[in-house]
Specification:
Elements: H1 17-26, E1 32-36, H2 68-76, H3 86-91, H4 94-108, H5 116-126, E2 130-135, E3 152-154, E4 162-164, E5 170-171, H6 173-183, E6 211-213, H7 224-229, E7 238-242, E8 264-267, E9 287-289, H8 295-306, H9 309-314, H10 321-326
Parallel strand pairs: 1-2, 1-7, 2-3, 7-8, 8-9
Antiparallel strand pairs: 4-5, 4-6
Helix pairs in contact: 1-8, 4-6
Length: 330
Amino acid sequence: MECLFARGAPVLEPLNLHGIAEFIKSGRCKSIFLLTGAGVSTGAGIPDFRSPGGMYDSLRPELLTATEKQRKLMRSDPVHVVTKEREMFYQNQFPYMEVRRPFILGTQSQQWKATISHWFMKFLDEERLLQRVFTQNIDGLDYQTGISRERVTNVHGSIANVTCEGCKREMSFDAFCDELRKNIKDIYGVDPTAPETSTHIPCPSCKRPLVKPSTVLFGSSLPEAFFDQLPSLSTADLLIVAGTSLVVSPANSVVQHVPRNCPRLIVNKERVGEDLGIVYGTAAERDIWSGDISCDEAFLELIKLLGWQEKLLKIQHLLPEGNKELLKKL
């Protein structure tokens, strides 16, 4: 592959957001890839599952439709209920469904809004600059913007896509949510219309009760699409890594699959990925850190530098409230 830049010298001048914006506007940057993590969704207000006081921390296994052995396992580590046990789901689908019920239905009703970070990706798509988004998030917020679905690879699956763990056939997300409302009890006591007891949701194709959002369970392989799309990174002119600690493998390997002279913009409050070869400071030749600011703040700055303010103002009514406050900077 022909390199755009000379070896041994900085690939952009300057190595900052201004340099990135000028590169994007230059016409030389035609293929942009992103690797995203939880940081791009922080401004959406999605419930925090893992922090103290979050959903896992406050989980009451005694309310779940499960055996005592399964409840004991969940008491020792609440994450077992939704991510860690593939075999548990095959034996008993109810704990997964009951814990995830409000998150799934909230995703359908767009209770949480796509952020400036998500809309920046949509704007890249509109400008025919976006090649692919590798997202580690399962929240489905990428799709709210109307981004081309074929441009998104859900590395760990997505709440917004439903498949059968048995026959692998897809089920309509809206149809699944209808069944979820009718069949799965509400352990949080917020939905008076929910049934008192849970009953199975059968797969429309194989009739087994194994349909669920396509989030990856422990013991399951990552989607083949992730591995199939990795070679396409060889065509990258720019990689943007946003809102991820780069500690989860194999998703973090994305940073190593782009050409040697491909600029890598790290949008994260902390510097990450040094163990993967990302170089910061005066020794950097192609790696750029956006600084100690949020993803939404960094992408807002890029939107201003690119002259895309009108794009953002047209959709400002769709943004979460915290993002609307940021728009005052425009």
